[in-house]
Amino acid sequence: METKIVKVDRKHPQADIMREAGRILKDGGLVAFPTETVYGLGGNALDVNASHKIYAAKGRPSDNPLIIHIADMEDLPVLVTEIPPEAKRLADAYWPGPLTMIFPKSECVPYETTGGLDSVAVRMPNHSVAQILIREAGGYVAAPSANTSGRPSPTLAEHVIEDLNGKIDMIIDGGSVGIGLESTIVDFTEEIPTILRPGYINEEMLRGILGEVRMDQGLIAEDMDIRPKAPGMKYRHYAPRGSLVIVEGRQEDVTAAIQKMADEKISQGYAVGIIGTDETAGAYRSGLIKSIGAREDEAGIARHLYRVLREFDDSDVAYIYSESFRTPQMGQAIMNRLLKAAGHQMIEV
Q1: pLDDT in tens, 133-185
Q2: Rounded CA separation 292/222 (Å)
Q3: How far apart are CA 322 and CA 35, in angstroms?
Q4: DSSP strand E in 205-261: where?
Q5: Distance of CA 270 to the CA centre of its chain
Q6: Is the pTM of the predicted complex or chain greater than 0.90?
Q7: What's the N-to-C CA distance of the chain in angstroms?
Q8: Sheet with strand 214-215: strands edge to edge
Q9: Distances (CA, A) of 213 to 86, 207, 217
């Protein structure tokens, strides 16, 4: 398959390109496009065959549910059987934006889109290209991240091209994304609203709207026997090709421990990567050292994470050691992605 790659203005995308992309989705094809979180791989959410194509293009397990993207609130009742008052309050506060909510699904949503579940995940992105594409496509676009399953999510069109060129119909290049981590997911099919994936909208912000909210236990401990209700709950995600280990503790102890482990691997002939910050990168003396940004700029850390992991892949690094990033607002989301990428390999020093 030849993949058409087109560049658009992120705020005012060319109308003819967006109409063409919408037609591709209506006809059952696949289009990758930017959102404010990461690039998504879009297909018609109500088309069984389109969902099959998404799973095939990504190499994604078919029990890993897809998020349906909408652009208008009036389209939500078509997809779900119930919208709790708390969910309406949350939508009023954070839609459009980096928030996904899970509801009981309606009959029009195929099980192929929901990973066989009776619930459906829905998001309304806050990105002009995404909003226009969704409307051009008929209003309902299933869109996981536009990467090979398990790899770091794409924050640039170049990442999508690397993973999916020749596998999908079109890639819309809208430049770099804004947030760089996937949306927060809140499950409203439970008695208490439950966070299934942390993101930019953190637990404190959710409590401010919902009052009571809890964290899913699957975020704390891996359980391969569960059936995932949301993307990223069961399978290794966001992972570089090299073995990633996170080191946590007092900064001087972390730096010393990372350098010692890096030196050991380098002495054995391996290429080693180190993830530090602007404040600590200069303290490391060997290895391929990358700063993820300044510690006080947690939005920058989040935005740069997947890019840095992919850059290590480009350098054929066999081992990666990363500092821990438990920052105030997005630290929970950043560490969730890092732990997934590391297969929960973390050392405390």
Answers
A1: 999 999 999 999 999 998 999 999 999 999 999 999 999 999 999 999 999 99
A2: 26
A3: 27
A4: 214-215, 243-248
A5: 30
A6: yes
A7: 50
A8: 4-7, 170-173, 31-33, 40-44, 141-142, 67-69, 119-123, 99-104, 184-187, 194-197, 214-215
A9: 11, 6, 13
